[in-house]
Amino acid sequence: MTFIKITEQSSLYDNLEKKPVLEILTEINQEDQKVALAVQKTIPEIEKLVTGIVERMKRGGRLFYLGAGTSGRLGVLDASEIPPTYGMPNTYVIGLIAGGDTALRNPVEAAEDDQDKAWQELSAYHIGENDTVVGIAASGTTPYVIGALRHAREKGLLTAAISCNPDSPVADEAEIKIEPIVGPEYVTGSTRMKSGTAQKLVLNMISTAVMIKLGRVKGNRMVNMQLTNQKLVDRGTRMIVEELGLPYDQAKNLLLLHGSVKNAVESFR
């Protein structure tokens, strides 16, 4: 099958610089409305991935995201939000980006072109059969991601690829292929737009569903969140007030004593 880079196809709009601001914003919004529908079509593949991750994490496995540029930054972002949101150690969901942490703020020239680098970085974590590797590449052609997925799959790890082009080289290397096809970008080739939004939605779904199935959510609440600021202390206190019917100050003292909503509620009961 011929590989077609839809993400590089010409925008459906032209003469952008001549348009008034309202028209530009309206057209961007119209394009963005296509993203959720594209992601919806990938839910069966996301379900397979989440189920596999949960099974492996219950055996002590970890989830690794890796990518370059916007894709890599989104993976690092999703991984970094797991500890404060769900109270998991930062060793369970790990994001790697081509070029390292420097690339989070500044481009690192040619970092994504090294096909062996990501696997070398993964190997430093003593990666094993219970771990999962998710490669993120809007174009589906990033060598950094391709090499890592190839090595990981050869070693028997669960692998998945998130790409916004169908039947991409990245997807060919993965067991599970998640392909939200969002169409050409509003600014031709600017995959930080719809493609990046689609990837963020998919990552939200993966990590949220995994954390729920690992017991990090009670009802619909983040009962294991880290109490890193006053806003979160207040939120946790109000959860305890609602759950146990305690006065606010007593609930707050209980929360601070036990460190999480879950532990506070369980200790009181």
Describe the 3D structure.
The chain is an alpha/beta fold and 269 residues long. It folds into 2 domains: 6-213, Rossmann fold; 230-268. 48% of the residues lie in helices and 9% in strands. It has helices spanning 21-40, 43-57, 69-80, 82-86, 117-123, 143-154, 169-172, 194-213, 230-244, 248-258, 261-268, and strands spanning 63-67, 93-97, 132-136, 158-162, 176-178. A 5-stranded parallel beta sheet has the order 2-1-3-4-5, with helices on both faces.
What order do the helices and strands come in, and which of them pair?
Layout lengths: L20 H20 L2 H15 L5 E5 L1 H12 L1 H5 L6 E5 L19 H7 L8 E5 L6 H12 L3 E5 L6 H4 L3 E3 L15 H20 L16 H15 L3 H11 L2 H8 L1
Parallel strand pairs: 1-2, 1-3, 3-4, 4-5
